[in-house]
Amino acid sequence: MSLLIKNGEIVTAGGRYFADIYCEDEQITAIGKDLDFDADEVIDATGKFVFPGFIDPHVHIYLPFMGTFSKDDYASASRAALVGGTTTLIEMCCPSRAEEPLEALQLWNSKAEGLSACDYTFHMGVTRFDELAESQLRTIVADYGITSFKVFLAYKGAFGIDDAELYATLKLAKELDVVVTAHCENADLVAQTQAALVAEGKVGPEWHEPSRPVTVEAEGCHHFMTFAEMTGAEVYVVHTSCQPAVEAIVAARGRGVKATIETVIPYLVLDSSYTERPDFEGAKYVMSPPIRAKEHQDFLWKKLADGTIDTVGTDHAPFDFSTQKHMGHPDPNKAVNADFSPRGEAADFTLIPNGVPSVEDRVNLLYTYGVTTGKIDLQTFVATASTNAAKRFGLFPRKGDISVGADADLVIYDPAYTGIISAETHLMNTDYSGFEGMEIKGRPACVTVRGQIAAKEGQFTGTLGRGKLLKR
Ligand code: DUC
Ligand code: ZN
Ligand code: ZN
Ligand code: ZN
Protein backbone atom coordinates (compact mmCIF):
# COMPACT_ATOMS: atom_id res chain seq x y z
CA MET A 1 0.00 0.00 0.00
CA SER A 2 1.34 3.43 -0.94
CA LEU A 3 -0.11 6.85 -0.37
CA LEU A 4 0.83 10.21 -1.87
CA ILE A 5 -0.39 13.40 -0.22
CA LYS A 6 0.00 16.36 -2.57
CA ASN A 7 0.02 20.15 -2.15
CA GLY A 8 -0.68 20.37 1.58
CA GLU A 9 0.94 22.74 4.06
CA ILE A 10 2.89 20.57 6.47
CA VAL A 11 2.85 21.85 10.03
CA THR A 12 5.02 20.30 12.72
CA ALA A 13 6.13 21.59 16.10
CA GLY A 14 9.28 22.80 14.40
CA GLY A 15 8.00 24.54 11.28
CA ARG A 16 5.59 24.86 8.38
CA TYR A 17 6.17 24.45 4.65
CA PHE A 18 4.50 23.23 1.48
CA ALA A 19 5.54 19.74 0.35
CA ASP A 20 4.23 16.37 -0.72
CA ILE A 21 4.45 13.28 1.48
CA TYR A 22 4.92 9.75 0.20
CA CYS A 23 4.11 6.79 2.44
CA GLU A 24 4.93 3.16 1.73
CA ASP A 25 3.26 0.54 3.88
CA GLU A 26 3.32 1.94 7.39
CA GLN A 27 5.91 4.69 7.15
CA ILE A 28 6.71 8.03 5.60
CA THR A 29 9.43 7.36 3.01
CA ALA A 30 9.77 10.71 1.21
CA ILE A 31 8.92 14.36 1.75
CA GLY A 32 9.55 16.94 -0.97
CA LYS A 33 8.24 19.34 -3.57
CA ASP A 34 6.33 17.90 -6.53
CA LEU A 35 6.92 14.25 -5.67
CA ASP A 36 6.09 12.18 -8.71
CA PHE A 37 5.68 8.64 -7.41
CA ASP A 38 3.12 6.09 -8.46
CA ALA A 39 0.82 5.52 -5.50
CA ASP A 40 -2.15 3.31 -4.77
CA GLU A 41 -3.95 6.36 -3.47
CA VAL A 42 -3.34 10.06 -4.08
CA ILE A 43 -4.86 12.66 -1.77
CA ASP A 44 -5.05 16.28 -2.87
CA ALA A 45 -4.44 18.39 0.23
CA THR A 46 -4.67 21.78 -1.51
CA GLY A 47 -5.90 24.38 1.00
CA LYS A 48 -5.39 21.99 3.89
CA PHE A 49 -2.87 21.55 6.68
CA VAL A 50 -1.04 18.27 7.17
CA PHE A 51 -0.34 17.62 10.85
CA PRO A 52 1.34 14.66 12.56
CA GLY A 53 -1.26 12.36 14.10
CA PHE A 54 -2.41 13.77 17.41
CA ILE A 55 -1.66 12.00 20.68
CA ASP A 56 -4.00 11.99 23.65
CA PRO A 57 -1.72 11.33 26.62
CA HIS A 58 -4.55 10.98 29.14
CA VAL A 59 -7.62 8.85 28.50
CA HIS A 60 -9.71 6.39 30.47
CA ILE A 61 -11.47 3.79 28.35
CA TYR A 62 -11.88 0.82 30.66
CA LEU A 63 -12.49 2.38 34.07
CA PRO A 64 -14.24 0.78 37.02
CA PHE A 65 -14.89 3.91 39.08
CA MET A 66 -17.28 5.30 41.68
CA GLY A 67 -19.45 2.20 41.61
CA THR A 68 -19.87 2.01 37.85
CA PHE A 69 -17.93 1.47 34.60
CA SER A 70 -17.02 4.02 31.95
CA LYS A 71 -19.14 3.70 28.82
CA ASP A 72 -16.62 3.39 25.98
CA ASP A 73 -14.75 0.36 24.80
CA TYR A 74 -11.80 0.45 22.42
CA ALA A 75 -14.11 0.21 19.41
CA SER A 76 -16.13 3.32 20.25
CA ALA A 77 -13.19 5.23 21.75
CA SER A 78 -10.75 4.60 18.91
CA ARG A 79 -13.35 5.38 16.24
CA ALA A 80 -14.16 8.64 18.03
CA ALA A 81 -10.49 9.47 18.52
CA LEU A 82 -9.70 8.90 14.85
CA VAL A 83 -12.50 10.98 13.34
CA GLY A 84 -11.29 13.73 15.65
CA GLY A 85 -7.66 13.43 14.51
CA THR A 86 -6.19 11.51 17.46
CA THR A 87 -4.14 8.55 16.25
CA THR A 88 -2.47 7.44 19.50
CA LEU A 89 -4.09 6.94 22.89
CA ILE A 90 -2.29 6.66 26.19
CA GLU A 91 -4.68 5.12 28.66
CA MET A 92 -4.42 5.12 32.42
CA CYS A 93 -4.33 1.54 33.68
CA CYS A 94 -6.05 2.01 37.06
CA PRO A 95 -6.16 -1.18 39.15
CA SER A 96 -7.80 -1.25 42.53
CA ARG A 97 -5.51 -1.74 45.51
CA ALA A 98 -6.57 -5.41 45.66
CA GLU A 99 -5.37 -6.18 42.12
CA GLU A 100 -1.85 -7.23 41.20
CA PRO A 101 -0.22 -4.81 38.75
CA LEU A 102 0.72 -7.40 36.12
CA GLU A 103 -2.75 -8.95 36.03
CA ALA A 104 -4.23 -5.49 35.82
CA LEU A 105 -2.04 -4.49 32.89
CA GLN A 106 -2.94 -7.71 31.10
CA LEU A 107 -6.63 -7.04 31.74
CA TRP A 108 -6.40 -3.46 30.46
CA ASN A 109 -4.40 -4.58 27.43
CA SER A 110 -6.94 -7.31 26.67
CA LYS A 111 -9.57 -4.59 26.27
CA ALA A 112 -7.49 -2.87 23.59
CA GLU A 113 -5.79 -5.75 21.80
CA GLY A 114 -7.73 -6.92 18.77
CA LEU A 115 -10.24 -4.08 19.08
CA SER A 116 -8.50 -0.71 18.91
CA ALA A 117 -8.31 0.94 15.49
CA CYS A 118 -5.49 3.21 16.61
CA ASP A 119 -2.19 2.63 18.38
CA TYR A 120 -2.10 2.80 22.15
CA THR A 121 -0.01 2.39 25.25
CA PHE A 122 -0.59 2.71 28.99
CA HIS A 123 0.53 4.65 32.00
CA MET A 124 0.82 1.97 34.68
CA GLY A 125 -1.21 2.95 37.70
CA VAL A 126 0.67 2.36 40.93
CA THR A 127 -2.15 1.95 43.43
CA ARG A 128 -0.16 -0.03 46.01
CA PHE A 129 3.52 -0.46 46.66
CA ASP A 130 4.82 -3.62 48.29
CA GLU A 131 7.39 -6.28 47.38
CA LEU A 132 5.11 -8.03 44.91
CA ALA A 133 4.02 -4.80 43.25
CA GLU A 134 7.62 -3.65 42.95
CA SER A 135 8.81 -6.80 41.21
CA GLN A 136 5.84 -6.75 38.85
CA LEU A 137 6.39 -3.07 38.05
CA ARG A 138 9.95 -3.94 37.05
CA THR A 139 8.58 -6.59 34.67
CA ILE A 140 6.01 -4.20 33.25
CA VAL A 141 8.69 -1.65 32.41
CA ALA A 142 11.16 -4.18 31.00
CA ASP A 143 8.82 -6.54 29.11
CA TYR A 144 5.87 -4.39 28.11
CA GLY A 145 7.76 -1.20 27.33
CA ILE A 146 5.59 0.80 29.70
CA THR A 147 7.85 3.65 30.76
CA SER A 148 5.42 5.79 32.72
CA PHE A 149 3.60 5.30 36.01
CA LYS A 150 0.43 6.98 37.26
CA VAL A 151 -0.28 7.81 40.87
CA PHE A 152 -3.33 9.35 42.52
CA LEU A 153 -2.95 11.71 45.43
CA ALA A 154 -6.77 11.94 45.31
CA TYR A 155 -9.33 9.10 45.55
CA LYS A 156 -7.79 7.50 48.64
CA GLY A 157 -9.48 4.16 49.22
CA ALA A 158 -9.97 3.59 45.48
CA PHE A 159 -6.63 4.27 43.79
CA GLY A 160 -4.79 6.63 46.13
CA ILE A 161 -1.49 5.71 47.77
CA ASP A 162 0.05 6.99 50.97
CA ASP A 163 3.22 9.04 51.24
CA ALA A 164 5.47 6.08 52.01
CA GLU A 165 4.23 4.36 48.85
CA LEU A 166 4.61 7.56 46.86
CA TYR A 167 8.20 7.89 47.99
CA ALA A 168 8.96 4.27 47.09
CA THR A 169 7.29 4.65 43.69
CA LEU A 170 9.32 7.72 42.82
CA LYS A 171 12.56 6.08 43.94
CA LEU A 172 11.84 3.10 41.70
CA ALA A 173 10.91 5.42 38.83
CA LYS A 174 14.20 7.27 39.22
CA GLU A 175 16.12 3.98 39.16
CA LEU A 176 14.26 2.70 36.09
CA ASP A 177 14.19 6.06 34.28
CA VAL A 178 10.42 6.05 34.24
CA VAL A 179 8.32 9.23 34.33
CA VAL A 180 5.65 9.40 37.03
CA THR A 181 2.36 11.06 36.14
CA ALA A 182 0.16 12.20 39.00
CA HIS A 183 -3.33 13.36 39.80
CA CYS A 184 -2.59 16.07 42.35
CA GLU A 185 -5.33 16.93 44.82
CA ASN A 186 -5.09 16.46 48.58
CA ALA A 187 -7.51 13.57 49.18
CA ASP A 188 -8.09 14.20 52.89
CA LEU A 189 -8.85 17.87 52.40
CA VAL A 190 -11.32 16.98 49.63
CA ALA A 191 -13.06 14.46 51.91
CA GLN A 192 -13.31 16.95 54.78
CA THR A 193 -14.66 19.72 52.57
CA GLN A 194 -17.17 17.41 50.87
CA ALA A 195 -18.50 16.24 54.24
CA ALA A 196 -18.85 19.81 55.52
CA LEU A 197 -20.75 20.95 52.41
CA VAL A 198 -23.09 17.96 52.42
CA ALA A 199 -23.79 18.49 56.16
CA GLU A 200 -24.88 22.04 55.30
CA GLY A 201 -27.29 20.69 52.68
CA LYS A 202 -25.08 21.82 49.81
CA VAL A 203 -25.62 18.73 47.71
CA GLY A 204 -26.08 19.79 44.05
CA PRO A 205 -23.43 19.53 41.31
CA GLU A 206 -22.63 23.24 41.72
CA TRP A 207 -20.91 22.32 45.03
CA HIS A 208 -18.44 19.97 43.36
CA GLU A 209 -16.00 22.78 42.50
CA PRO A 210 -16.10 24.39 45.96
CA SER A 211 -15.44 20.96 47.48
CA ARG A 212 -12.10 20.75 45.67
CA PRO A 213 -10.89 24.36 45.56
CA VAL A 214 -7.82 25.51 43.68
CA THR A 215 -5.75 25.64 46.84
CA VAL A 216 -6.34 21.90 47.42
CA GLU A 217 -5.03 21.19 43.92
CA ALA A 218 -2.07 23.50 44.47
CA GLU A 219 -1.26 21.66 47.71
CA GLY A 220 -1.35 18.38 45.80
CA CYS A 221 1.07 19.76 43.24
CA HIS A 222 3.41 21.17 45.88
CA HIS A 223 3.26 17.87 47.76
CA PHE A 224 4.10 15.84 44.66
CA MET A 225 6.87 18.28 43.71
CA THR A 226 8.44 17.84 47.15
CA PHE A 227 8.66 14.08 46.58
CA ALA A 228 10.07 14.65 43.08
CA GLU A 229 12.68 16.99 44.52
CA MET A 230 13.64 14.51 47.23
CA THR A 231 14.03 11.58 44.82
CA GLY A 232 15.15 13.24 41.58
CA ALA A 233 12.41 11.41 39.64
CA GLU A 234 11.00 13.00 36.49
CA VAL A 235 7.35 13.84 36.88
CA TYR A 236 4.28 14.89 34.89
CA VAL A 237 1.24 16.52 36.46
CA VAL A 238 -1.96 15.51 34.72
CA HIS A 239 -5.02 17.73 34.18
CA THR A 240 -3.75 20.95 35.74
CA SER A 241 -6.79 23.18 36.02
CA CYS A 242 -5.82 26.47 37.63
CA GLN A 243 -3.26 29.19 38.26
CA PRO A 244 -2.11 28.17 41.77
CA ALA A 245 -1.45 24.60 40.59
CA VAL A 246 0.61 25.73 37.62
CA GLU A 247 2.51 28.16 39.84
CA ALA A 248 3.34 25.43 42.37
CA ILE A 249 4.88 23.34 39.58
CA VAL A 250 6.72 26.27 38.04
CA ALA A 251 8.23 27.06 41.45
CA ALA A 252 9.46 23.46 41.68
CA ARG A 253 10.98 23.72 38.22
CA GLY A 254 12.91 26.67 39.63
CA ARG A 255 14.32 24.30 42.27
CA GLY A 256 15.47 21.91 39.57
CA VAL A 257 12.51 19.50 39.46
CA LYS A 258 11.96 18.05 36.01
CA ALA A 259 8.20 18.47 35.75
CA THR A 260 5.95 18.42 32.71
CA ILE A 261 2.57 20.16 32.89
CA GLU A 262 -0.58 18.84 31.22
CA THR A 263 -3.91 20.56 31.00
CA VAL A 264 -7.01 19.05 29.41
CA ILE A 265 -9.47 20.42 26.89
CA PRO A 266 -12.53 20.81 29.17
CA TYR A 267 -10.61 23.37 31.26
CA LEU A 268 -9.78 25.40 28.16
CA VAL A 269 -13.28 25.72 26.73
CA LEU A 270 -15.66 25.25 29.69
CA ASP A 271 -15.81 27.18 32.97
CA SER A 272 -17.48 26.75 36.35
CA SER A 273 -20.71 28.36 35.13
CA TYR A 274 -21.44 25.06 33.37
CA THR A 275 -21.46 23.15 36.67
CA GLU A 276 -23.94 25.71 37.97
CA ARG A 277 -26.51 24.95 35.24
CA PRO A 278 -29.99 24.17 36.63
CA ASP A 279 -31.93 20.89 36.57
CA PHE A 280 -28.89 18.80 37.41
CA GLU A 281 -27.35 19.69 34.01
CA GLY A 282 -24.26 20.69 35.96
CA ALA A 283 -23.55 16.99 36.59
CA LYS A 284 -22.46 16.62 32.97
CA TYR A 285 -19.45 18.78 33.78
CA VAL A 286 -18.43 17.15 37.05
CA MET A 287 -14.85 16.02 36.71
CA SER A 288 -11.84 16.24 39.02
CA PRO A 289 -10.07 18.52 39.41
CA PRO A 290 -13.17 20.60 38.72
CA ILE A 291 -13.77 22.94 35.81
CA ARG A 292 -12.74 26.35 37.19
CA ALA A 293 -13.77 29.99 37.00
CA LYS A 294 -13.09 31.82 33.73
CA GLU A 295 -9.98 33.62 35.09
CA HIS A 296 -8.19 30.26 35.37
CA GLN A 297 -9.17 29.34 31.83
CA ASP A 298 -7.64 32.61 30.57
CA PHE A 299 -4.50 31.88 32.58
CA LEU A 300 -4.20 28.35 31.13
CA TRP A 301 -4.39 29.68 27.55
CA LYS A 302 -1.59 32.19 28.30
CA LYS A 303 0.59 29.48 29.82
CA LEU A 304 -0.04 27.23 26.85
CA ALA A 305 0.96 30.03 24.50
CA ASP A 306 4.19 30.82 26.34
CA GLY A 307 5.27 27.18 26.61
CA THR A 308 4.83 26.78 30.37
CA ILE A 309 2.13 24.14 29.86
CA ASP A 310 3.49 21.32 27.73
CA THR A 311 0.58 19.13 26.72
CA VAL A 312 -3.19 19.16 26.19
CA GLY A 313 -4.97 15.86 26.83
CA THR A 314 -8.59 15.11 27.61
CA ASP A 315 -8.97 13.01 30.77
CA HIS A 316 -11.67 11.37 28.63
CA ALA A 317 -13.86 9.55 31.20
CA PRO A 318 -17.22 8.74 29.63
CA PHE A 319 -20.32 8.30 31.80
CA ASP A 320 -23.95 8.64 30.70
CA PHE A 321 -25.97 11.55 32.00
CA SER A 322 -29.40 9.89 32.11
CA THR A 323 -28.22 6.99 34.25
CA GLN A 324 -24.69 7.13 35.66
CA LYS A 325 -24.49 10.82 36.49
CA HIS A 326 -27.91 10.43 38.17
CA MET A 327 -26.28 8.32 40.87
CA GLY A 328 -25.59 11.69 42.50
CA HIS A 329 -28.98 13.37 42.04
CA PRO A 330 -30.16 15.23 45.19
CA ASP A 331 -33.83 14.60 44.39
CA PRO A 332 -34.90 11.24 45.94
CA ASN A 333 -37.25 10.68 43.00
CA LYS A 334 -34.45 11.06 40.47
CA ALA A 335 -31.46 9.55 42.26
CA VAL A 336 -30.50 6.06 41.07
CA ASN A 337 -28.38 3.21 42.43
CA ALA A 338 -25.44 1.64 40.66
CA ASP A 339 -27.85 -0.60 38.74
CA PHE A 340 -29.80 2.57 37.81
CA SER A 341 -32.95 1.59 39.67
CA PRO A 342 -34.54 4.27 41.92
CA ARG A 343 -32.45 4.91 44.96
CA GLY A 344 -35.40 5.94 47.06
CA GLU A 345 -33.43 8.55 48.96
CA ALA A 346 -31.53 11.71 48.13
CA ALA A 347 -27.96 11.51 46.90
CA ASP A 348 -25.36 14.29 46.54
CA PHE A 349 -22.63 15.52 44.20
CA THR A 350 -19.99 13.26 45.77
CA LEU A 351 -21.73 10.29 44.08
CA ILE A 352 -21.67 11.72 40.55
CA PRO A 353 -19.15 9.71 38.49
CA ASN A 354 -16.36 12.12 37.60
CA GLY A 355 -15.60 12.70 33.94
CA VAL A 356 -16.36 14.51 30.71
CA PRO A 357 -16.26 12.57 27.42
CA SER A 358 -13.91 14.45 25.09
CA VAL A 359 -11.54 12.22 23.12
CA GLU A 360 -13.38 13.01 19.88
CA ASP A 361 -13.42 16.77 20.29
CA ARG A 362 -10.03 17.74 21.74
CA VAL A 363 -8.23 18.56 18.49
CA ASN A 364 -11.08 20.49 16.88
CA LEU A 365 -11.75 22.47 20.06
CA LEU A 366 -8.09 23.32 20.56
CA TYR A 367 -7.83 24.42 16.94
CA THR A 368 -11.09 26.41 16.98
CA TYR A 369 -10.78 28.11 20.37
CA GLY A 370 -6.98 28.31 20.38
CA VAL A 371 -5.64 28.74 16.86
CA THR A 372 -8.48 30.55 15.07
CA THR A 373 -8.84 33.02 17.95
CA GLY A 374 -5.10 33.75 17.94
CA LYS A 375 -4.58 32.47 21.50
CA ILE A 376 -1.98 29.95 20.34
CA ASP A 377 -0.11 29.55 17.06
CA LEU A 378 -0.18 26.49 14.83
CA GLN A 379 3.18 25.21 16.04
CA THR A 380 2.08 25.38 19.67
CA PHE A 381 -1.11 23.56 18.69
CA VAL A 382 0.87 20.69 17.17
CA ALA A 383 3.45 20.66 19.96
CA THR A 384 0.94 20.55 22.80
CA ALA A 385 -1.53 18.15 21.17
CA SER A 386 1.04 15.76 19.74
CA THR A 387 4.80 16.28 19.71
CA ASN A 388 5.46 17.11 23.34
CA ALA A 389 3.59 14.03 24.54
CA ALA A 390 5.49 11.88 22.01
CA LYS A 391 8.77 13.23 23.35
CA ARG A 392 7.86 12.95 27.02
CA PHE A 393 6.55 9.40 26.73
CA GLY A 394 9.21 7.85 24.51
CA LEU A 395 7.26 7.77 21.25
CA PHE A 396 9.20 10.42 19.30
CA PRO A 397 10.07 10.53 16.37
CA ARG A 398 8.02 7.47 15.50
CA LYS A 399 4.94 9.43 16.58
CA GLY A 400 4.41 13.18 16.89
CA ASP A 401 6.39 14.25 13.83
CA ILE A 402 6.32 14.30 10.05
CA SER A 403 9.71 13.00 8.98
CA VAL A 404 11.13 10.22 6.84
CA GLY A 405 11.03 7.00 8.86
CA ALA A 406 8.19 8.12 11.12
CA ASP A 407 4.93 6.19 11.24
CA ALA A 408 2.53 7.48 8.59
CA ASP A 409 0.04 8.82 11.14
CA LEU A 410 -1.17 11.98 9.44
CA VAL A 411 -4.06 14.39 9.80
CA ILE A 412 -5.07 16.29 6.66
CA TYR A 413 -6.97 19.12 8.24
CA ASP A 414 -9.64 21.23 6.60
CA PRO A 415 -9.63 24.76 8.11
CA ALA A 416 -12.64 25.74 5.99
CA TYR A 417 -15.01 23.26 7.66
CA THR A 418 -17.57 24.58 10.12
CA GLY A 419 -19.89 22.46 12.22
CA ILE A 420 -21.62 22.06 15.56
CA ILE A 421 -20.73 19.48 18.21
CA SER A 422 -23.62 17.27 19.27
CA ALA A 423 -24.19 13.97 21.05
CA GLU A 424 -26.55 13.10 18.20
CA THR A 425 -23.65 12.79 15.80
CA HIS A 426 -20.66 11.96 18.01
CA LEU A 427 -19.11 8.49 18.00
CA MET A 428 -18.32 8.37 21.71
CA ASN A 429 -20.61 5.98 23.53
CA THR A 430 -22.26 8.53 25.84
CA ASP A 431 -25.76 9.98 25.79
CA TYR A 432 -24.54 13.57 26.09
CA SER A 433 -21.76 15.87 24.98
CA GLY A 434 -20.17 18.36 27.36
CA PHE A 435 -19.64 20.56 24.31
CA GLU A 436 -23.19 20.33 22.91
CA GLY A 437 -23.94 23.17 20.53
CA MET A 438 -20.39 24.52 20.40
CA GLU A 439 -19.19 25.60 16.98
CA ILE A 440 -16.04 24.14 15.49
CA LYS A 441 -14.08 25.74 12.69
CA GLY A 442 -11.94 23.05 11.16
CA ARG A 443 -11.87 19.27 11.27
CA PRO A 444 -9.84 16.40 9.83
CA ALA A 445 -10.65 15.71 6.19
CA CYS A 446 -8.56 12.55 6.28
CA VAL A 447 -6.69 10.69 9.01
CA THR A 448 -4.15 7.92 8.49
CA VAL A 449 -2.83 5.33 10.90
CA ARG A 450 0.44 3.76 9.79
CA GLY A 451 -0.39 4.46 6.14
CA GLN A 452 -4.02 3.33 6.18
CA ILE A 453 -6.86 5.84 5.85
CA ALA A 454 -8.81 5.47 9.08
CA ALA A 455 -11.20 8.42 8.94
CA LYS A 456 -12.61 10.73 6.29
CA GLU A 457 -14.80 13.81 6.82
CA GLY A 458 -16.19 12.64 10.14
CA GLN A 459 -16.65 9.01 9.08
CA PHE A 460 -14.63 6.13 10.46
CA THR A 461 -13.05 4.11 7.63
CA GLY A 462 -10.35 2.26 9.56
CA THR A 463 -9.99 -1.29 10.81
CA LEU A 464 -10.92 -2.28 14.34
CA GLY A 465 -8.17 -4.40 15.82
CA ARG A 466 -5.36 -2.96 13.70
CA GLY A 467 -4.08 -0.77 16.55
CA LYS A 468 -0.87 -1.91 18.24
CA LEU A 469 0.48 -1.66 21.74
CA LEU A 470 3.44 0.71 21.41
CA LYS A 471 6.52 -0.50 23.23
CA ARG A 472 8.44 2.43 24.56
N1 DUC B 1 -10.92 12.63 37.09
C1 DUC B 1 -12.07 12.51 36.43
O1 DUC B 1 -12.79 13.50 36.33
N2 DUC B 1 -12.41 11.32 35.92
C2 DUC B 1 -11.60 10.18 35.94
C3 DUC B 1 -10.51 10.24 36.91
C4 DUC B 1 -10.11 11.59 37.31
O2 DUC B 1 -9.07 11.78 37.87
ZN1 ZN C 1 -7.11 12.34 37.51
ZN1 ZN D 1 1.20 18.23 51.34
ZN1 ZN E 1 -7.63 10.80 34.38
TrEMBL record:
Which InterPro entries does its entry note? Amidohydro-rel (IPR006680), Hydantoinase/dihydroPyrase (IPR011778), Metal-dep_hydrolase_composite (IPR011059), Metal_Hydrolase (IPR032466), Metallo-dep_Hydrolases_sf (IPR050378)
List the SUPFAM superfamilies: Composite domain of metallo-dependent hydrolases, Metallo-dependent hydrolases
Q: Which residues carry this modification: N6-carboxylysine?
A: K150
Which residue numbers delimit the Amidohydrolase-related domain?
49-453
**Statement: the UniProt record of this protein carries the keyword Cell division:** no
One Pfam family assigned to this protein is Amidohydro_1
Needs which cofactor? Zn(2+)
Entry PTM? Carbamylation allows a single lysine to coordinate two divalent metal cations.
GO CC list: cytosol
Sorted keywords for this record are: Hydrolase, Metal-binding
Q: Name one GO molecular function term.
A: metal ion binding
PANTHER family noted in UniProt: COLLAPSIN RESPONSE MEDIATOR PROTEIN, HYDRANTOINASE/DIHYDROPYRIMIDINASE FAMILY MEMBER
The UniProt similarity line reads: Belongs to the metallo-dependent hydrolases superfamily. Hydantoinase/dihydropyrimidinase family.
NCBIfam families with a match to the protein in the record:
D-hydantoinase (TIGR02033)
* Name of the protein described by the UniProt record: Dihydropyrimidinase
- According to its UniProt entry, this protein's organism is Roseibacillus persicicus
- Gene name as annotated: dht
